[in-house]
Amino acid sequence: MNFCCICAQLGENPREVFTSASSTAIRCSVILPPVGNKAPTTIEYNIYGKQSERFQRLHKGNLIYIHGAKLRYDLESKTYSLHGGVVAEVTDAFPILNSIVLTGRCVKDIDQSDARAFKTTADGLMIANQSISVNTGKGQADLFNFYAINNATDKFNQAELLVNFTRKGTGITIHGRLVTDRFKDANTQEIRNISKLQLVNMTLAPKGADGSAPKPVAPQTTVASAGEVTSLWGGRTAEENNDPWNQASGGGLPEIPGQYGQAPNLDEIPF
Questions:
Q1: DSSP codes, 111-172
Q2: CA-CA 20 to 30 A from 64: which of 11, 92, 143, 265?
Q3: What per-residue confidence (pLDDT) applies to 172?
Q4: Integer distance in angstroms from the first to the last C-alpha of the chain?
Q5: What pLDDT is attached to residue 225?
C-alpha cells in the first residue's frame, strides 16, 4: 500500500511535461506546511488523466488538498515526489493534513550499538531508525527511511517496538508524515533541508504460533444483503482515480529517473 492525504500550497504555476514519447503529466512544486518545530517541506507533485484538467487551472499560491496520491523516493537525487490522486482547491479554513500510509518489508535489523540506527538523548528521548521496501509493481520497489521518536517513559513506545519487533524481512504497515529538518551545514555554513518520514503509528504483519504465516480466518457471520440504496449527494457519483498505474490493464507506478529497475538487494541497501 502507498496512500497519501496531503494539504499543500502551490509553489509555482502547474506546467505540462512529457513523461514519455506519447504521454504527458501536469507538474509543479508544492509546499507542505511545517509540522511542529519543523520547516516547510517542498516536494514535486505530478498528476495525470482527467484530474490534470482541474489542476492545470490553479495558480501559484492556491491551497490544495491531495487525496490518494502515491509517494516516491529517488535514491540517486535523494528527493521525494508525489504522484496522482484527486485534487481539490481549499481555503485556509480547511484542516491541515499530512498523512502517509506505506506497506512493505523492513530491510534491516536495527543495530542498537549504532547511533545512526538507535539512540537515547540526555532529555530522555528515544529515537529509532528503520527502512521499508515498498513494492511498486513489475519487480520494482521504492526504499523509504523512517524514524520513531518518543519519551522512554511513554506508554506506547514506538521506538522500542521498532527495535524489539522489526527485523530484516518483517512485514509492516506504517502511518507517518513527511517532515523537514532545516539546519546550517557546519562545513559550508549553508542552510540545508532534509526531508524524512516521521512515524505516527504502525502495524506489524501477524505470525502464526510457530512464526510462520497465519492461517486464513474463516468468517463467523453472514452479512444480510442490503436493500435499495438511497441516492445521496444529489445523485452524484464518486470521482474515479484515473492514474494509469491504477487501471486494471496497467499496474505499477511510473518510473523515476535514476531509480533501480529491480527489487532492491536487501543486503546492499544503505541506511
A1: -TT-TTTEEE-TTSEEEEEEEEEEEEETTEEEEEEEEEEEETT-SS-HHHHHHHH--TT-EE
A2: 143
A3: 94
A4: 22
A5: 64
Residue 259, pLDDT score: 45
Is there a contact between 243 and 83 (Cβ–Cβ < 8 Å)? yes
| C-alpha cell of residue 95 | 484542516
Residue 214 lies in a domain: no
CATH of the domain at 17: 2.40.50.140
The answer as to whether 250 is a domain residue is no
Q: Establish if 31 belongs to a structural domain.
A: yes
Nearest CA-CA partner of 246 in 28, 48, 64:
48
Q: What is the pLDDT of residue 102?
A: 96
Regions in the chain scoring below 70 on pLDDT:
208-227, 229, 237-271
124 sits in the region (left: phi over 0; alpha: psi -120 to 50; else beta) called: left
User: SS3 of 233, please?
Assistant: helix
On whether the pTM is more than 0.90, the answer is: no
Contact 116, 271 (CB under 8 A): yes
Residue 126's domain comprises 102-204
Of 75, 99, 123, which residue sits at a domain end? 99
Q: Is the separation of the CB atoms in 69 and 4 below 8 Å?
A: yes
Q: Is 138 left (phi over 0), alpha (psi -120 to 50) or beta?
A: left
Which parts of the chain are beta strand (E)?
2-10, 15-18, 24-32, 41-47, 63-74, 79-83, 86-90, 98-106, 118-120, 125-137, 140-151, 171-184, 191-204
pLDDT of residue 249: 40
As beta bridge partners, residue 198 has 147, 177
Q: If you ran DSSP here, which 8-state letter would residue 255 be given?
A: P
Longest C-alpha distance within the chain, in Å?
69
Print burial letters for 58-91: b (CB count within 10 Å at least 16), e (below 16): beeebbbbbbbbbbbbeeeeeebbbbbbbbeeee
